[in-house]
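yo

u said u wanted the structure for the complex thing, so here. seqs first:
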Amino acid sequence: MSSLGNSTNIFWHECPVGKSERQKLLNQKGCVVWITGLSGSGAVPLHIPFINFSGKSTLACSLSRELHSKGKLSYVLDGDNLRHGLNKGLGFSAEDRTENIRRVGEVAKLFADAGLICIASLISPYRKDRDACRAMLTDANFIEVFMNMPLSLCELRDAKGLYKLARAGKIKGFTGIDDPYEPPLNCEIEIQEKNGVCPSPFAMAGQVVSYLEDKGFLHYQ
Amino acid sequence: MSSLGNSTNIFWHECPVGKSERQKLLNQKGCVVWITGLSGSGAVPLHIPFINFSGKSTLACSLSRELHSKGKLSYVLDGDNLRHGLNKGLGFSAEDRTENIRRVGEVAKLFADAGLICIASLISPYRKDRDACRAMLTDANFIEVFMNMPLSLCELRDAKGLYKLARAGKIKGFTGIDDPYEPPLNCEIEIQEKNGVCPSPFAMAGQVVSYLEDKGFLHYQ
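structre next:
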């Protein structure tokens, strides 16, 4: 019998169908691809207007599409979308951000346990919150992808008009403006602009797929 | 732009790989099998000691096993297990039970959207909480399974020793003793004892699998 905060008398139930059996069925390995970065951190420069806005969500979707084309099952947990459901009622204070990320981490862990390649796409600005999610999984199953784009570029693009609102003081606690973003120290994958040009969504997805392929996530031995 | 409780400036991101594509990949249809009933509500009578204790969790696992043997991907969300992770910190007050069930419902919805047959196993004693989870999905994708076992049988078996503690006043708010259980009014599946004998875990799972088969969840057209 365990004692867990307010939850007492709660037993742990082991199930006869485990992660390895689900992975075998899917011929892949469950893991979490955690995409972190500033809002609009995949923004393309204005002089290439024909490329769609490509931020964390765009990479998440593009990656999901690439994996699907290879017959692999993935699922995107989008930080913004979850605020309409599971995380409804949470705001943007440090405590609420932490709880928001903790819940996404817990759900991502369940999806990885279910055998899926779970793609979590959240600003997740604080290192300790991301590290807490990493600690929920075995290290190798948490793949942190840092969208390393300069604030100036994100702000220049400002696809959602949020930076403008934040600069005008109409949004408080906006990451990069009046709330810090702490870059990862040891992420598995870093995506960067080159000479002011962002990689295309397809190229970014390819970078992640190559990593997953190399590490053996796309097959089950 | 939407306004959601404390969450403002949150956009909804549509992903190019949708539920139908995942369902096609898996050759099944995502749904939620929600198992509700008293603690130990699948308890077998004492005069058949060779049959394992078989409650909600046992049905969940047995069902998961049966589906796996048919090549179908399912995942069990066990109410007790989630209290170690996602729902850590929630207790057993009416508010906390409601929030506990709401979060499980939201996660179950995500799993169904991912294309899985999500098996949720929780006492979930209040009708309004279960109905709120049903309302998160389209009606046909929420399959409520009522483990309709008499309190006397659950208490007689008392596999976890919890009824004894509750009767002694050492656990407060225990469903069936000093907290109500509201049986479903229109559940999809009801599992009952016959002449004091519970169906075996295999028989119970078979009842649910037949339902899923009949309703077309085990294939994708």
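The helical segments of chain A are 19-26, 56-69, 79-82, 94-113, 127-136, 151-157, 162-167, 201-214. Chain A touches chain B through 59 residues (CB under 8 Å).
cya
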